[in-house]
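Internal tracking record. Fields below are filled automatically when a chain is submitted to the structure queue. Please do not edit lines marked as system-generated. If the sequence contains nonstandard residues, flag them in the REMARKS field before resubmitting.
Queue: standard
Priority: normal
Entity type: single polypeptide chain
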Amino acid sequence: MNNIINGNEGYLGNPNVKRDGIIQGWTQENILEYQKCMNDPAYFAITYCKVISLDKGLVPFKLYPYQEKMFDHFNTNRFSIVLACRQSGKSISSVAYLLWYALFHSEKNIAILANKGATAREMLSRVTLMLENLPFFLQPGTKALNKGSIEFSNNSKILAAATSGSSIRGLSINLLFLDEFAFVENATEFYTSTYPVISSGKDTKVIITSTANGIGNQFYTIWQGALQGTNAYKPFRVDWWDVPGRDEKWKIETIGNTSQLQFDQEFGNTFFGTGDTLINAETLMKLTAIQPIRILEGGDLLVYEESQKGHEYIICVDVSKGRGQDYSTFNVIDVTSNPFKQVAVYRCNTISPILFPDIIYKYGTSYNQAYVIIESNDQGVLVTQGLYHDLEYENVHVSSALKSNGIGVEMTRKTKRLGCSGIKDIIENDKLVINDTNTIVECSTFIAKGQSYEASDGNHDDLMMNLVMFGYFATTEMFGDMTDINLKEMMFKDKMQQIENDMVPFGFIDDGSDAINELQREEDLGKPWAIDYDQQHF
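SYSTEM-GENERATED OUTPUT FOLLOWS
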């Protein structure tokens, strides 16, 4: 490459990095090449960038066709999200684009954020490697270069850090790159805290890349929104067959050396449930959110279906302290017919327990005097008392008329166990239509911890606890009396019908009456009723 004209042009002894203040002599060829690179990031990468090959060492960056399209995608869209299979070159392509952006745009701040600071700094080192192998006429000059940042003479800067709420707070970021975002811990909180930073400028760009890692994370939420057109992100997908050299033979060999599940997750761009979820992965994959028809209460209430005359509704309520942490929530569920249907969702982490009864009263009344079930633990007592006594809303669940705190449902270990068992069977047997995105996310992050279930680290389960409460109530005689639906018997008959359909060729027919009677006997003895109960974790 022969960058050096004299020994003083390199940065701090590095002869391949042009230091700040060097006057560049230009040839006509240099000018033409500079213009080509400035106008075409893919041309810049193919012609001048180099990468490390495991087999051949330092080699020119030969872009696959989908990588060239990826460069164009980054360049033409303000918000880009990439779902790509493992070892597809998504990260190195992104790194090359970031370098191009810094070199050919003045006064831009570019941030590389990864799950760990070391990972982000390693990606910055790839930027440095590419920089070191560029001819000097493409380098603007370097003011500072260390493991955490690079600053150029054009006043553009690339910094590397871990994803945390404080990583870019206070900075003006022009291009944010989030690598393997599906694997970032507390990604939702991070994204919420940093979005004001990245959205403040009219030209701010965001690039998010990752392989699939379950459905209960911020990457999945943004990806689905991009596919549905409900956010500003433009999706770009790279499948295993897009990568040259990968064919059916390669697929079979890879599955043989790993497993079908691992292949689907890492190479098949398949989203599975995260962790040991209460709801099985197959069911989670089928859950599909829809857009609300109305958004009320400043964005806190999402309405998916208006109240209908003659329909029966149940509202399940979970109460927080209203201090900006956990959410006060309720789910409005239409229980008129099978399957039940989620028709409205309220979610707010700032509303006071003193004011929450007014919201419940308003929408309880709106949905045909809906039957309200409130978790009465802690702050829930204030809400139950306010709704039942102060506002005189009569259609509130009373667990015991003999106790002063008998309004609502006390969430004990037993109650939660039965509720978890109930809602698992309800959802997995397609007896409840879930329409809300946040609810689906919470379903996918509600995992086994010890002897119970709760949200995985960095996630919430307030909406899920609404459903757990519904699952508990659905097992009671009161629910059957209210809806004229014997849920236990209905689901058991569905199960027996499935078995009967499978066994008909062998001449096996059973009306299931003996099994139902046995189930009732077990319930009378205090045993939980859930199907396949021995397989559950509580």
